[in-house]
Amino acid sequence: MNMISFNDITRAGYTQYVEIDLGSATMIIMSGQVAIDAEGNTVGKGNFEQQAEFIFSSIKKIVEKAGGSINNVIKLNNYLTDISNLTLFKNVRDRYVNTSQPPASTTVEISRFIREDLLLEIEVIAMINKS
Question: What is the pLDDT of residues 70-108, one digit of tens each?
Fold first, then answer.
């Protein structure tokens, strides 16, 4: 039995997420999500909030495609190029996650990403219980 399955959402040399069959649950581990659309264009250049909305919308779609909901997200690793955007980040995040039972979260300021116009990246772990 293959416990790890790779998805069909791939980009130049990596996969967007993997699903790990744990028997009674499926764990989803997502690569860092950034504001790059299907055509390879940066979404919301210079607009932190627009990039955060795009990323959380992408996270939601991936978890739903795997059979869960955004409430199945248990861990976020957040990388921001400017920590002064933390309040904006929290405002967008809180429109998506269950704020009464939020995921564990780590936020780090970094100097830059692979593209200079990217302002944040989010890695995700989700756990989806099987019925």
Answer: 999 999 999 999 999 999 999 999 999 999 999 999 999
pTM, two decimals, is 0.90
Where does residue 104 rank: exposed (0-12), middle (13-18), buried (19+ CB within 10 A)? Answer: exposed
What does each C-alpha distance from 129 to 28, 42, 72, 74 come to in angstroms?
11, 34, 9, 12
Contact 113, 82 (CB under 8 A): no
Spell out the alpha helix ranges (H) of 9-117.
48-65, 86-96
Contact criterion met (CB below 8 Å) for 128 and 19: no
How confident is the model over 17-64, as pLDDT tens digits? Answer: 888 999 999 999 999 999 999 888 999 999 999 999 999 999 999 999
Structure tokens at 38: 């299907």
Q: Which CATH number fits domain 32-121: 2.120.10.30, 3.40.1260.20, 3.30.1330.40, 3.50.50.60?
A: 3.30.1330.40
Q: How many residues does the chain have?
A: 131
